[in-house]
Design brief:
Multidrug-efflux Transporter 1 Regulator Bmrr, Chain A, 9-stranded antiparallel sheet, mainly beta, GyrI-like, 2 helices, YobU-like_regulator, 42% strand
Length: 163
């Protein structure tokens, strides 16, 4: 799986947030709710959608499928004016990310993340950073289609700078 390193500039988004776990995954409900109201978001900065996960420190070192995290369905905006009721402002902070292009449907996502976190990351000069993880769902994203494409952004930092 191809990857690249990117330095992300801060991004402003508006979206909906939901608490969930991998054992009680509510992603479909979250996105259904957001997509039915996406037209209410003004000042959009494009058409790409962002699926953002907020994990607590140590979430992956002591993985528990019942541990809760927050997920947001969102779109980038140029202004935070008129945030629709039931939605919120979300900021992706600047930082270093490893980006993977994933091609396939959501059924294989668990294996992809297991590879990224269990194989690629330990063999790399990076470690997880405590910032949001996210996926960019652009023009080539087609939900359950095997030809669907999305970018997976994982926050990282240099292993050697923290010793």
């Amino acid at each position: 799986m191809e990857s690249r390193i990117e330095i992300l500039s801060p991004k402003k988004l508006i979206g909906m947030r939901m608490s969930m776990s991998f054992a009680d995954n509510k992603t479909g409900i979250l996105w259904k709710n957001f997509m039915s109201r996406k037209h209410e978001v003004t000042h959009t900065a494009g058409t790409d959608l962002y699926s953002i996960q907020f994990y607590a420190a140590g979430f992956f070192s002591a993985f528990n499928p019942r541990a809760h995290f927050d997920k947001c369905a969102s779109i980038e905006v140029t202004s935070m004016e008129a945030i629709p009721e039931g939605m919120e402002y979300i900021e992706l902070p600047a930082g270093l990310y490893v980006v993977f292009l994933y091609k396939g449907d959501a059924r294989n996502a668990a294996a992809v993340f297991q590879y990224i976190l269990g194989t690629w990351l330990p063999a790399s000069p990076y470690e997880l950073d405590i910032r949001p993880h996210f996926e960019v769902l652009g023009e080539t994203y087609k939900k359950d289609d095997p030809d669907s494409e999305e970018e997976i952004w994982i926050p990282v930092r240099d292993k050697n700078k923290n010793q």
